[in-house]
Amino acid sequence: MAVSPVRTLVNEEETCTDGLPLPATETAPHAYISRLAELHDEAAETALIANLLGRVPFLAAGVAGATALAVLLIHADLAPSLTWLVLIAAGLVALMRAYVTAMAAPFDRVPLRIFARDLQAIMLYVGFAWGAGSFLALPPDVGVLQAVVFSVGACVLVAAIVRAFDATVSFGVPVIVLSATAAAIRPMDNSVLATAAILAAGALVMGAAFVFERWLDRPEQMGFATLPSN
């Protein structure tokens, strides 16, 4: 049966238990430092995605609460409102399903990476569902402020809860595009102003989410010491 290599020191030279010297690249100090840097990166990635996983219930509750509040305040027709509610509910079910699946192994990198990938797709769908509310839930005579709050306000809510640029932009882009389109074609006063305001405010939110994530990714913000890459 083969013996697993164990490092020993023989005649001041590092060898394996089979008597063969270790490759020079393995005994070089920078090899150990490089491996330590890799472990640091893996730990940072796991911590970031695990924190993101922990925020999913708050994200689902926030979107559900915003949806209920919008329905109560807008007083749109029943049929389109129900259609919009079904679309949002389907997205929330998918979101919680991904959460439950990932929670089965919350610190395993493979399930966490699968969760992070699925989260982007789910948030893209939820963004389209929310953006569809600009056609289904908002009345034709909605004002500029209401249209901006409905679209950009949802993006701000998601960005504040999820604190991840990928998920924020996956949700925000379809919301902003659909809401701006609805404002442009809706027979309302100041439709051009509403469209421009939605696009400008949406771009501002996406930019702020990007800057915040770059700041959050700094090692000192994650509680890790900075390590050399090689």
Question: Care to describe what's here?
Answer:
This protein is mostly helical. The chain has one domain. The chain has 9 helices and 2 strands. The chain has a two-stranded antiparallel sheet with strand order 1-2. Strand 1 and strand 2 (13-15) form a beta hairpin. The radius of gyration is 25 Å and the shape is globular.
SSE blueprint and pairings:
Layout: E1 8-10, E2 13-15, H1 24-27, H2 29-54, H3 56-74, H4 78-103, H5 109-136, H6 144-162, H7 165-185, H8 191-216, H9 219-222
Antiparallel strand pairs: 1-2
Helix pairs in contact: 2-5, 3-4, 3-6, 4-5, 5-7, 6-7, 6-8, 7-8
Going across the biggest sheet, name each strand in turn. 1-2
Largest sheet: 2 strands, antiparallel
Number of individual domains: 1
Separation of the first and last Cα atoms:
36 Å
Mean pLDDT: 78
Class by helix and strand content?
Answer: mainly alpha
Q: Gyration radius, to the nearest Å? A: 25 Å
Q: How many runs of DSSP E, i.e. beta strands?
A: 2
How much helical structure, as a percent, in the residues?
A: over 70%
H/E series, N to C?
EEHHHHHHHHH
Stretches where pLDDT is under 50 for at least 5 consecutive residues are: 1-18, 218-230
Helix count equals 9
**Strand content of the residues, in percent?**
under 5%
Shape: globular
Short synopsis of the structure:
By secondary structure, this protein is mostly helical.
